[in-house]
Every structure is written in structure tokens, then in C-alpha cells.
């Protein structure tokens, strides 16, 4: 198994997937998708992907439809995606994806979290290079073989395909998203969910006290309403 498998396994063991802000994040994704490509999912591939993710997260259909309708209103605030970079204590690189309608507020908040937790907010490009920007798709495993699928989808950019209890996962570089999405749809393969992740190229093992220091900063950042995802180079424990 490769790095994507290990990364996914480590994150699954922790609280990441259970962040209470899932519906809020999906709502922002809907707004950004509609503002970018319109409210029709048949002609807007980004919106199509967000709706699939909403379904996977058990977001009520009425909520999705209402979010699409609201996003179509020109008075609805638009969200800008901003990436923040920095270091937690003990040399752990932190990469933060945000979606904000007020850049000044978000910058001030993120800076305060680093300052309060003995971290250092970095400049653009200071840690981003330490992470591989990837896309991923989850599809049903029924009638499909992960190894065969991997061989078939190498030509479309897939780098890693593996099975877990919830289906088959396909990982590829960020810029392969559209190509793989189109091929899965052409083959009539249901996409249960899809998204993007930043996988650390190397990780650093810390002792329990050091882990607590880093966790304190990560938890503060994750609580912020503008934060969509947080990635780091600390080695994940599987307990």
C-alpha cells in the first residue's frame, strides 16, 4: 500500500472525518461551485461533485436545494479560498485551507491561533511544497476489482487505488480530477463522494507531550468557522 492508503488510515482513526462543521463546509462548497459554474449540476461538474458529497454526508436534499437557490442570489456573499501556512511547536508544518467572505478577519484569527499556541505563521509557499495536492474518489466496490481498476485508470492519472470497508478509493494528482470524474461517469460508475487532500511527503514522530502541544493548535484552528481543512506533518497515531 502507498502513502495515500496510510494517510487515509491515519486520519480515519482520528477526529478529522467527524468534524461537526460538515454541513457548513458543504454549504460553502455549493456557493463557490454555483458562483463559478451556475446552478445546474448537469453542466457544472464541480457542483455535481459537491452534491454527491452532500448525499454521502446524509445532508437532507431540501438543504442542498435551498443552498443552491441561495447561492444563485447575487446578494449572497461569495467565499474566497485562501491557503495559510505555518509551523506548530516542535517543527511540525501546518497547512490550512479556508473559505472566507472576509479575508482580514480570517488572517487575524489564524495568526492569533499560531501566536497563542507557540506556533509561527509562515509566508506563502513556506510549507505547501511539503505536501502533495491530491484528488480522490470513492466508488462502490460491488462488481469492481480495485487492482483491475488501478491498471485501467493509470492512463487517466490514478496513482493509487485501494479498497476499504466503505468502497474503493482512487487517488490521483489534483489536476487529474476532471479527467477521472468524466471517465467514471462515462462508464456509469457511481461516485459516492470525491474531494481533495494534501498528503505530507514526510512525517515527524513526536512524544506524547509534544503531540499535545501540536493538537492544541490544530484544535483551535479547526474550531474556526472559516477553516475547511487542516493538514500537518505530525505522524498519526493509530490508537
TrEMBL record:
Localization recorded for this chain is:
Cytoplasm
Tell me which UniProt keywords the record has, alphabetically: Cytoplasm, DNA-binding, Transcription, Transcription regulation
Show the InterPro entries listed in the entry: Integrase-like_N (IPR017856), TACO1_YebC-like_2nd/3rd_dom (IPR048300), TACO1_YebC_N (IPR049083), Transcrip_reg_TACO1-like (IPR002876), Transcrip_reg_TACO1-like_dom3 (IPR026564), YebC-like (IPR029072)
Domain TACO1/YebC-like N-terminal: from-to ranges: 4-73
Q: Which residues form the TACO1/YebC-like second and third domain?
A: 79-234
Query: What Pfam family is a match for this entry?
Result: Transcrip_reg
User: Could you confirm whether the keyword Nucleotide-binding appears in this record?
Assistant: no
GO MF terms here are: DNA binding
For this protein, the record's HAMAP family field holds: Transcrip_reg_TACO1
Tell me which NCBIfam families the record gives.
Answer: PRK00110.1, PRK12378.1, YebC/PmpR family DNA-binding transcriptional regulator
UniProt xrefs under PANTHER family:
TRANSCRIPTIONAL REGULATORY PROTEIN YEBC-RELATED (PTHR12532:SF6), TRANSLATIONAL ACTIVATOR OF CYTOCHROME C OXIDASE 1 (PTHR12532)
Question: What family does the database annotate?
Answer: Belongs to the TACO1 family.
Record protein name field: Probable transcriptional regulatory protein AAEO59_09455
Amino acid at each position: 500500500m502507498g502513502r495515500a492508503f496510510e494517510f487515509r488510515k491515519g486520519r480515519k482513526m482520528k477526529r478529522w472525518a467527524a468534524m461537526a462543521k460538515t454541513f457548513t463546509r458543504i454549504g460553502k462548497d455549493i456557493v463557490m461551485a454555483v458562483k463559478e459554474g451556475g446552478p445546474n449540476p448537469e453542466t457544472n461538474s464541480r457542483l455535481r461533485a459537491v452534491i454527491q458529497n452532500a448525499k454521502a454526508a446524509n445532508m437532507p436534499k431540501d438543504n442542498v436545494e435551498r443552498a443552491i437557490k441561495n447561492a444563485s442570489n447575487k446578494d449572497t456573499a461569495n467565499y474566497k479560498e485562501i491557503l495559510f501556512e505555518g509551523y506548530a511547536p516542535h517543527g511540525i508544518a501546518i497547512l490550512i485551507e479556508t473559505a472566507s467572505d472576509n479575508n482580514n478577519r480570517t488572517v487575524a484569527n489564524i495568526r492569533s491561533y499560531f501566536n497563542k499556541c507557540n506556533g509561527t505563521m509562515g509566508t506563502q509557499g513556506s510549507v505547501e511544497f511539503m505536501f502533495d495536492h491530491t484528488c480522490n474518489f470513492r466508488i462502490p466496490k460491488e462488481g469492481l476489482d480495485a487492482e483491475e481498476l488501478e491498471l485501467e485508470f493509470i492512463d487517466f492519472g490514478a496513482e493509487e487505488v485501494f479498497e476499504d470497508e466503505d468502497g474503493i478509493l482512487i487517488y490521483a494528482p489534483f489536476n487529474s480530477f476532471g479527467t477521472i470524474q468524466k471517465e467514471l461517469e462515462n462508464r456509469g460508475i457511481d461516485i459516492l463522494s470525491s474531494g481533495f487532500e494534501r498528503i505530507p511527503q514526510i512525517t515527524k514522530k513526536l512524544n506524547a507531550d509534544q503531540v499535545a502541544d501540536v493538537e492544541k493548535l490544530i484544535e483551535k484552528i479547526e474550531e474556526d468557522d472559516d477553516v475547511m481543512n487542516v493538514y500537518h506533518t505530525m505522524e498519526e497515531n493509530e490508537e
